[in-house]
Write a structure and sequence with these properties.
The complex is a heterodimer of chains A (about 300) and B (about 350).
Chain A: H1 2-5, H2 32-41, H3 44-61, H4 63-66, H5 98-134, H6 136-151, H7 154-164, H8 169-179, H9 182-195, H10 199-206, H11 211-247, H12 259-266, H13 275-301
Chain B: H1 3-14, E1 24-39, E2 44-60, E3 64-68, H2 75-83, E4 90-95, E5 98-99, H3 105-111, E6 115-118, H4 132-143, H5 148-161, H6 178-190, E7 196-200, H7 208-225, E8 228-233, H8 236-242, E9 245-250, E10 253-259, H9 260-265, H10 270-277, H11 318-322, E11 328-331, E12 334-336
Parallel strand pairs in B: 3-8, 3-9, 6-7, 7-8
Antiparallel strand pairs in B: 1-2, 1-4, 4-5, 9-10, 10-12, 11-12
The chains are: A mainly alpha (about 300), B alpha/beta (about 350).
Amino acid sequence: MMAAVSKQPPAELDQLDPHFGGDALTLEPESYLSMVWKRFRRHKLAMAGLCFLILMYLVAIFAPYIATQSYRETDSANRLQPPSKEHWMGTDQIGRDLYSRVIWGSRISLSVGFVAAGVAVVLGTVIGAVAGYFGGIIDNVLMRFTEIVMSFPTFFLLITIVSIVERSIFNIMLVIGLTSWPGLARMVRGQFLSLREQEFVLAARALGASNARIIFRHILPNAMAPVIVSATLRIGGAILTESGLSFIGLGVQEPFPSWGNIINGGRTFLRQAPWICTFPGIFIFLTVLSFNYVGDGLRDALDPRLKD
Amino acid sequence: MDNTLSNSLNHAAADGPDGGNGDILLEVRNLKKYYPLRGGIFSRIQGWIKAVDDVSFDVYRGETLGLVGESGCGKTTTGKCILRLEQPTSGSVVFEGRDVLKMNSEQLRALRREMQIIFQDPYGSLNPRMTVGDIVGEAFAIHGIASGRERVKRVEDLLKVVGLSPYHARRYPHEFSGGQRQRIGIARALALRPKLIICDEPVSALDVSIQSQILNLLKDLQDDFQLTYIFIAHDLSVVQHISDRVGVMYLGRFVELTDSEKLYSSPKHPYTQALLSAIPIPDPDHKKERIVLEGDVPSSLEPPPGCAFHTRCSYCQDICREVRPEWREIEKGHYVACHLAK
């Protein structure tokens, strides 16, 4: 009895004063999203990352207007030119304008990140949720399958698949997504396993709620925070994977630019023309870093227990 | 238990038992809940944890039946089995003539309107992502009872009934204190106007000063809404004040069940006697003999043969070690499971 009492602050008085909690001024409760936004805004690095990402997405969307020249027009007279007024980032090994190529390349990298992470999140959440919620044999089968997928060396699996299927950008997105869900599935399963035993889930069951209602209304919203965080980080990961694939020549095919294949092209000229690798490298670095910071900021902002 | 609580609860206890021969709302017979214990390479079943082991009792309409016992004695599991939040291993639970354990999912859904539960943990029992209005109003959404304005109105009424303000509906659980959260949980349980509410240690996690408020609220609601309670607790003084009858559990079994007054004035089972002797009395001059139990509660994996309590009982005889005592009615309405009780 006394032990139970000491869990509560002894000064707690169950006051029914409408202005309890000392927040008398904010009688109008904030919505969940505005609370999240308020907390996110305080995270300076995450805000910087978000601003950079918004900028990058605008660049990707308006690439045709922002690029100063064609991304595929070669000019053999102007090979390996350093950055100048005319070519802001210099030219590459066959005289194409690097600035325009990097701008166009952002389309590939950013969309690959989003779509691949999207595929992974949907697959991972569904598989993890079903396994964690229903448990038993279903859980066993799904988790063994997940472990099998996990135990493939992802990058080599990617290389194998990519060399079999047609190397379109869409296929690459899909393949990256299809190989990166297991970690998420495990995480979601873990969340479901612990949340389904929570008393508020039991309470919903006692009220007669259906499985679907319990999963979607009660468990999933509480399991989403780590999923969103991990999805954000995964976008960064997918961008790196695509760059890696393009770098070894299995990603997006010339003459279409992606940050990865620009670096691949410039690799042999690293000494003569370091700018070819440097500029797309900086963009990859900044984009992935931004996603990581945004993920970090979201992690803090989405936790309802952290108050102001 | 301190004095303030006892005083503030006196009016609750004064209502007195109307149980005894009233009409039976719930009939529990030979209820068992065994959990398999798996181990080894092929996770074979290596034994059974007998959380609830052959429990029988009746609950009368309008009464409060207290269930007490140490933690792990099966009180909560019994409550959850009645609601079928846990699937019992065997036995029967008959609610107003219908066997709860034989119901299909559709019948069970309908039953939810008549039986509800209030949980122990005021923090874990409310979904942190839903507003109080959504939490309390969910019952209406699930059963398609009221929608739109009507639902908002009903939720606000419920909040008023449990002593909160209507505008609290738009707030989130984390903005409330423990006692207020427990009121939200009570409002949710009341939404469907159930006949029976299982209160699973509803005040154990609360500060003493708030315990009495919540207990009084429960008592008032019982009168206003003609509720029947099964009140689970490990605190004997809390149970004494709110219950008409009290059942004592030990290691998954009932050891004694009778009117609250009778249990506290003349307990028959040695375990009950030991429990009651442990209640402190707020009188420095009062000398009281305390029965101190030796040893620990045995494992429910391998409960002792015969009487489960014999390992710690000072009156233990040969028969106690071999034969499980019958659940007998030694006088009217006074059930004991002890060979020696008369």
